Amino acid sequence: MAQPKAAHVPAVHDKLRALGILALNGMFDEMDAVGVLRQAATDVLPGDLAIVSSFGADSAVLLHLVAQVDPSLPVYFLETGKHFVETLDYVETLKKHLGLINVHAIHPNSEDVKRFDPAGTLWETDPDSCCHIRKTEPLEPITEQYAGWVTGRKRFQTKERGVLPHFELTSDDRIKVNPLAYFSDADVNQYKIEHALPEHPLFAKGYKSIGCAPCTSVVAEGEDPRAGRWRGLNKQECGIHFDFNGAIASPMTASKRHTLWKDGAFMADPFRAWSEESDAATASYTHVPLPVFVANRDAFLANPHPLGLQVSPGDRIEDVEADLGRFASIAITFPAFTDGRGYSTARLLTERYQYANEIRAVGDVLQDQIPLMRRCGVNALVVTHEPTRDALVENRLPEVGIFYQPVGTAEVPVGTRPFLRRVS
User: Which HAMAP family match (predicted)?
Assistant: First the structure.
């Protein structure tokens, strides 16, 4: 690898510089993708531009543009250590096919990995932090060497990217170039066909957007192409992109997007919901509906991966009494504020069956209910109601001091004499 460049020192971030970016977008808004990249590489940032590529399902399009403009442009690939083997092979395929001569792999800091992810399973419990140490941190010192860098992002991919321009000014006064911003999914596929570009080996198997192996799944017909990224999690970005409109948060504020409250904080949720594409033999970190588990019990018991159980009103927790130890988490559905059947399920789990793993409440979870849920054994909550989220963070939930229906042996129902209470 060539010697690292000195860190780029950007100009002062002021209104004139921001207006310059607006002018660039106005001038080149209608220009085709290769024209945008050529303009950026030869006139806007000559000798001071790098390309960042995931070598995923659509990467061949951007890299084909690079090969047309200048195959010696520096291309950086984040080798997280979690990629599919097929992706690593694809890197070599595209380098050879396109004649790219300046491709570099960026690896995470080994000490960071050893400290924060020694077992290699951080993605299961905190994918934001996993992305941070394997992508954001390693890339930062690279991008600091350049005045700008090129991405393959497109407007259609997520709602946050829906207003993505060709040129954007980042918070650290660098220019991010998005030549494919206006490409649709159909445009990408047509471009690959017209230029006979090698397809990622996993694309034909249903992987339409490809990142790290543990956090990428097959996309069903009709699903959004990025639906297979961090499936089941409230997560759309790995953290290396900061949109000019501020819609994509930095990893430090990513917890605001989490919905799982546990151990006194909102955190990344390793579990996902069961879907039609889920398979009993291979599902992992999935809450399986109780009737589905009963119907496929043998396959689920043979499955070596962590699983959860979803219990909805009307489900009989008694039907899986013998298998409760199989589940790392049990999600009890509270479909409405007035439906109290979930409380009975939680009490059965803790008092009759002595279930000691995670019991989470999902559905219509509001702040007035939470103290009652906790009394019954719920120790995790999935919360989307903003006032309730605020109440949890600020520790101002209502208190319950009078009990008509006591839980366990410590609570005393109102109007009775404790010394006459019978302990069963």
Answer: CysH
Catalytic residue among 45, 150, 197, 238: 238
Quick check: is 238 catalytic?
yes
Q: What is the pLDDT of residue 265?
A: 85
Binding residues: 130-131, 212, 215
Exposed, middle or buried by CB within 10 Å (0-12, 13-18, 19+), for 62? buried
Edge-to-edge, what's the strand order for the sheet holding 260-262? 265-267, 260-262, 380-382, 358-363, 327-334, 307-311, 286-289, 272-273
Burial label, 397 (beta-carbon count in 10 A; 0-12, 13-18, 19+):
middle
Which of the pair, 413 or 107, is modelled with greater confidence?
A: 107
Length of the chain: 424
Instruction: Report the share of the chain in percent with pLDDT over 90.
Output: 40
Sequence ranges of the domains in the chain: 15-251, 258-393
- pLDDT, tens digit (0-9, with 9 covering 90-100), for 125-137: 788 788 888 888 8
Rg (CA), the chain: 26
Per-residue pLDDT tens over the stretch 402-414: 555 556 545 555 5
By DSSP bridging, strand 49-53 and strand 75-78 are parallel
Give 185-229 pLDDT, tens digit per residue.
Answer: 888 889 999 999 999 999 989 888 899 999 998 888 777 777 888
Residues at the binding site for [4Fe-4S] cluster are 130-131, 212, 215
pLDDT in tens, 316-356: 999 999 999 999 999 999 998 888 899 999 999 999 999 99
Amino acid 258: pLDDT = 77
Q: Is the separation of the CB atoms in 239 and 250 below 8 Å?
A: yes
Q: Which CATH number fits domain 258-393: 3.30.413.10, 2.60.120.10, 3.40.50.2000, 3.20.20.70?
A: 3.20.20.70
Supply the DSSP symbol for 216: B
